Amino acid sequence: MGIFAKPDLDIDWQESSNCLGVDPDLFFPERGASTREAKDVCRACVVRMDCLEFALQNGEKFGIWGGMSERERRRIRRQRALERAAAAAQAG
Q1: Whole-model pTM?
Q2: Average pLDDT of 6-34?
Q3: Residues 6+ positions from 27 with CB-CB distance below 8 Å
Q4: Would you say residue 48 lies in a domain?
């Protein structure tokens, strides 16, 4: 793999999402506004993990994806980076 990862553009999972047909503004609230309603839509969604992984792999910086805010996704990205670094240190 090169320096830049190719974005994952496979979005077939979106056809099965709970948010299909829901006003997108719900998932992109103004700063400081509640995200609870958007997260409630995501909570029982059968493709929630696909959505979250899409956001993580494609660097989505805004909105609720897979039931998580950008702050929550940032934590996951940091944790994954630490895990990769630890694995590389063990292998090397």
Answers
A1: 0.82
A2: 88
A3: 19, 38, 41, 63, 64, 65
A4: yes
The answer to whether position 3 is within a domain reads: no
Residue 66 has pLDDT above 50, yes or no: yes
Does 6 reside within a domain? no
Contact between residue 35 and residue 29 where contact means Cβ atoms under 8 Å apart: yes
Total domains in the chain come to: 1
CB-based contacts of 20, cutoff 8 Å, min separation 6: 14
Cα(83)–Cα(35) distance, integer angstroms:
29
Q: 3-class DSSP state for residue 65?
A: strand
Query: What's the whole-number average pLDDT of the chain?
Result: 90
User: Is 75's pLDDT higher than 60?
Assistant: yes
Instruction: Say which amino acid occupies 47.
Output: V
Which residue range forms the structural domain that includes residue 54? 12-91
Provide the greatest CA pair distance for the chain: 49
